[in-house]
Each structure stands twice: as structure tokens, then as C-alpha cells.
Design a protein that fits this description.
Helix content: 10-25%
Number of helices: 7
Number of strands: 26
Radius of gyration: 26 Å
Structural class: alpha+beta
Largest sheet: 8 strands, mixed
Strand order of the largest sheet: 7-6-10-4-3-13-16-15
Distance between the termini: 12 Å
Length: about 475
């Protein structure tokens, strides 16, 4: 889908060359040369595109150029990036989560005033982005997203079926359509999402997609381009925040223990050409933490209380580190041939970071299970060398996908764990029919009374992987889930 989208944008930019902006007007910025990568024209900031199935509609709505007639239609429709006239961002960071609100204004500058076309909005989000809401205003009409309760789905099937065009372009980019916009109209968009702050070293890092391509700059050179970013940080503690790095010059509005508010506001000759990045640390020498409690509001459907437990590691890193026992459970079914080399490299990179007090094992599975060793192996250089050879010999894609038996084998290998932290890392690109049975077996294992149970971390690869099941499995196993949708 990404390559198809990029190809449509490429053709849309070629069509936009037909637009005449009037005598003495600046020419539209030339798009970059098309690279071989399908990512070359994917959105790196909020964007709006004209969906053009009929190329004869492409023209300046203010100054008709009477271009020669173009025969044929665009299949799939071309996507012409619209010129942006305003953008503002507000980000509120709490602990490890940022709530981002972005507003922008675009003009349908490439369609005749007498014609209409759909417009496609693309919203790329940051780390583990989750879209919370969308509002669109255009020519007296308003559109907004709506949260549908599962119990009401049956009564709204017809309305939901009409809401076409919403989709995921990539794992962190949502796209949706606004129907039949008149040429020359102004489109205002407001999007809200949540995303995670990454933790690198001792720094909390926020990265918001804010890299606008040159071809969204308005051709009218004297038009002011005002960018605004309001950032509020609340660490949840009374501990001082130390700013480390920022991509855009920020002016402090207020600062107190555990809180920071700052603003970037500028009139720039061109829109931002880099993502908005901000990093900070919490100044503490030793481990510190606490628990935040939140009661539901009076009218909230969910009346359960919520809590959040947080820990800051501090700068003193001299404490004891527990040893690890890790079993890698790797899918080598027939759908994995182009992925196994990357999986192999990641496993070997992980093993290189183990100490000799850690131990590991590897299970490769399809319809059968291939076991590196019958016992957990200490992470010595010799054992890692043997594992490298074993992976090269056994990571051959073939067969189907059976997750339950290798998962049970991994739990048996870790059943006698004492004095260390056991982990299972499950990597797969597939879906199985017995997800409920697998989750039930894992629940039974955790309720069996064992002194230590392994944490199960799952990683899904590709668009056809059942990541809902993998996420549920990691929750039962008190682990972590992540995915690569674009592999």
C-alpha cells in the first residue's frame, strides 16, 4: 500500500506542474527526484492531498490557465499535495506518554473552482501512536471521528459502512477522506493522538513528525508562514527537570519542580524541515518513584479507579543486576524467508550483550520444533559461537505455524529457574486458529503455583500477523508486545 501511495503522489506532483499561478508569481517548488524507495513520498508530517481521478480538473481555481485537454483517467487516482497555510502543535507530556494536538489549514489550490474532488488527510504519529480524534472543517461542513461502543455496533452498521476511506497507510500513519471539496476551498484539520516517549540512556525523548516537504509551501512568497509548538511537561514528581536537547528554539514560559512549559513560535520562510524533538532528564541520584491515583469522573461509563506506578532509575548505577534466563522462540514457517536474516542478526546482537552469568536457549518452530540445546546454556563465547552455527543451519523457512507446543517447551525449560529473571521472546509473522487455547494454557501455567514464571514478550512481523493475540499473550505473561507492520 505504501508503494502505491508514493506512486500516486509522484503522479500528482507531475500533474501539479500544469498549474499556472499568474504573471510574475513564483513557481512551485520542484519535488525531489523519485528514489527507488517506496518511502520517498510518504508523509513525514500532517498532510492533505487532492484525490484526482480526472486530470482535466487540475488547474488554478483563481487564474484559469486553459491547459491543453488531457485524455484518459488516473487509475489509481493521483494524489496532489495541497499547500499548507498554517500549523500549530500542542503537546502535553505526562510520565512516559505525550498527548499531541495538531491543527493545520490547507487550500485546495489545484482544482478548478467549478469542480470538486475528494481530499485525503494523512496523520503520521510518533512512537506507538494512537489516534484519539479528528475534526475537519471545510466550506461550511464539519466532520469528526466518533467512538463507537461495541454494544451499539449492530445499530450503526449502515452508517459505519458509509464511512469509507479510513485506513492505516503504515503502522503509525492514519489516512482518511473528506468527500467532494470544491476547488479553492480551505480545509482546516485538527488531530489528537497519544504517543510514547522513548527512554534513551537517562533521557526521556519526544519526537513528533514535523518534517514538511518543500512542495507544501504556498507559491505566494510573501504569505506569512507561522509555526507554533506549545510543549508542557509534567514528570509526575517534584523532582527537577533538566532539559537536554531541542530541535526548535524554545522559550520558557514557566518552570517549577517536576513541571516545564515552553513555546516555539516563528514566522519562517519555509515550513519546518525537521521533526520536533525534545529530550530531558529527571535529576535524581538514586532510585525514586511513587504511585498516582485517579478516580473516574461522575459521568464516566467506566467507574473503576486507576493507578499508575512509576520508577526513575537515578544516576547511581552501582546496584546489583539480576542475571537473565532467556528462551528465543522463533517462527521459521514458509512465510518467513525474507525475514529470517534480520531475526538472526537481532538474536546474535542480543546474545552479544549477555554476561556469562546469563543463560539462553533457542527454539525454532514451524509444524515441528527444533531445539538448540536440551538445557539452558550459559552465555559463554563458545556457546554463542555454537548458537550462531546452529541458527545458520536451522533457520530455513518451511512448513506451517504451530505456536502452542514450542511455547510449552520454552516454559518447561524455565520451570526450574531460581535466582534469575526468566524471559520468553516469541517472534512470528503469522496467525493461528487456537489463540484462545494458547492463552488459556499460559494462564493455567501462571496459576500453577510456581515460585517464578517467565515473562513473555512478543513481536509481530508484517500486516497479516495477529497482533491482538500477541498483545493479549504478552499481557497474560506480564511482558511487552511490539510489532513491525511494514516488514
Amino acid at each position: 500500500m505504501a508503494s502505491k501511495f508514493a506512486s500516486s503522489v509522484d503522479y500528482g506532483l507531475m500533474l501539479s506542474k500544469r498549474i499556472y499561478y499568474g504573471k510574475g508569481a513564483a513557481t512551485a517548488p520542484a519535488p525531489p527526484a523519485m528514489s527507488r524507495s517506496p518511502d520517498s513520498y510518504l508523509p513525514t508530517a500532517p498532510m492533505v492531498y487532492a484525490v484526482v481521478p480526472d486530470p482535466t480538473a487540475v488547474d488554478n481555481p483563481d487564474v484559469p490557465s486553459y491547459q491543453p485537454y488531457v485524455h484518459g483517467r488516473c487509475d489509481p487516482p493521483a494524489l496532489v499535495p495541497l499547500q499548507m497555510h498554517e500549523v500549530a502543535v500542542e503537546a502535553d507530556c505526562y510520565l512516559d506518554t505525550a498527548f499531541v494536538s495538531i491543527t493545520g489549514r490547507w487550500r485546495l489550490h489545484c482544482i478548478m473552482a467549478s469542480r470538486r474532488c475528494d481530499c485525503q488527510v494523512a496523520i503520521p504519529m510518533g512512537e506507538q501512536g494512537l489516534l484519539l480524534g479528528i475534526e475537519v472543517h471545510v466550506a461550511g461542513r464539519s466532520y469528526n471521528s466518533q467512538l463507537i461502543i461495541a454494544a451499539e455496533m449492530e445499530d450503526m452498521i449502515a452508517e459505519v459502512a458509509k464511512a469509507k476511506g479510513g485506513n492505516l497507510l503504515k503502522s503509525q500513519t492514519s489516512i482518511f477522506r473528506v468527500p467532494q471539496v470544491v476547488g479553492g476551498s480551505t480545509i482546516s484539520v485538527k488531530a489528537n493522538w497519544s504517543q510514547k516517549l522513548t527512554y534513551q540512556g537517562s533521557l526521556f525523548c519526544l519526537s513528533i513528525p514535523f518534517t514538511f516537504p518543500s512542495y507544501v509551501n504556498p507559491v505566494a512568497g510573501k504569505m506569512p508562514k507561522k509555526e507554533k509548538v506549545l510543549l508542557n511537561v509534567n514528570s509526575g514528581t517534584g523532582i527537577e527537570l533538566l532539559r537536554d536537547h531541542t530541535s526548535h528554539p524554545l522559550k520558557d514560559l514557566s518552570q517549577e519542580a517536576g513541571k516545564l512549559s515552553c513555546l516555539y513560535e516563528a514566522e519562517a520562510p519555509t515550513w519546518s524541515s525537521q521533526d520536533f524533538k525534545f529530550s530531558y532528564s529527571v535529576s535524581t541520584t538514586s532510585v525514586s518513584g511513587g504511585v498516582l491515583l485517579q478516580s473516574p469522573s461522575l459521568h464516566d461509563i467506566d467507574q473503576r479507579d486507576m493507578f499508575c506506578c512509576y520508577l526513575y532509575p537515578g544516576e547511581n548505577q552501582s546496584g546489583k543486576v539480576y542475571s537473565k534466563e532467556v528462551v528465543f522462540v522463533i517462527d521459521i514457517s514458509a512465510s518467513m524467508p525474507n525475514l529470517l536474516m534480520n531475526v538472526k542478526n537481532v538474536i546474535l546482537e542480543s546474545l552479544s550483550r549477555f554476561t556469562q552469568q546469563d543463560s539462553f536457549n533457542i527454539l525454532a518452530f514451524n509444524n515441528e520444533v527444533h531445539l538448540f540445546s536440551s538445557l539452558m546454556e550459559p552465555a559463554t563465547p563458545e556457546a554463542i559461537s555454537n548458537a550462531t552455527q546452529w541458527i545458520s543451519a536451522n533457520f530455513t523457512a518451511s512448513g506451517g505455524t504451530d505456536i502452542l507446543f514450542p511455547l510449552e517447551q520454552a516454559m518447561k525449560l524455565l520451570a526450574e529457574t531460581t535466582g534469575s529473571i526468566p524471559f520468553i521472546f516469541l517472534v512470528t509473522d503469522g496467525a493461528v486458529e487456537n489463540e484462545r487455547e494458547i492463552c488459556s494454557k499460559v494462564k493455567d501455567h501462571y496459576s500453577s503455583g510456581l515460585p517464578v514464571c517467565p515473562r513473555i514478550c512478543t513481536f509481530g512481523i508484517g500486516a497479516y500477523c495477529n497482533n491482538y493475540f500477541l498483545q493479549m499473550l504478552s499481557q497474560i505473561g506480564r511482558g511487552y508486545h511490539d510489532a513491525s507492520y511494514d516488514a
